[in-house]
Amino acid sequence: MRLVMLGPPGAGKGTQAARLAERLGVPQLSTGDILRAAAAKGSPVSLAARDLMARGELVGDDIVVNCVLECIAEPGAASGFILDGFPRTLRQARALDEALEKAHLGLDAVLELKVDESVLLDRIIYRAREAKAAGLPVRADDNPEALKVRLESYRTQTQPLADYYRTAGLLRTINGLRPVDEVTSSLVAELRLHRKPESEQTSLSRAEFE
User: What is the pTM of this model?
Assistant: First the structure.
């Protein structure tokens, strides 16, 4: 099964993507992990990503897209994947669609976690406090100022993807403010409800949702 997770920063995309990935037996592919993995490879795309990251610069759209496409073309993603943090823009979404179409594949669903932005700050502060208490590193962007910047970027660049995927008939929207287990159950229920006919399935085994 090939899925994309959408939602603003702090919505819980990473947590839910990890849970679904374990349940479905497919890799969770976050943009950060993909770029770090790319930096360890020797391809021209990965070397360009590594150089930019080493200088602390942002990795451009073209390189991000190519790194993601390299990753989903690997054997480990042959049975499906869950993209977490990609695509972030309409340009990236269209590039992903074109690449999948060339491979005679397609997305099964786009899962959007809807949350009230006023709750996100509390979540970010709590996450930072929990990490600190556990002796774990606190994310540099887990603070009110960074959250405002990230939310504005999400509204202008990523939020339009909801309409894009809704038009394509792929968008499944879930209330992300409920307890974690309830959100997971709702996501699984949506995937069951909108599961493609068996004749159209390309990678989903019968037992994965049983």
Answer: 0.79
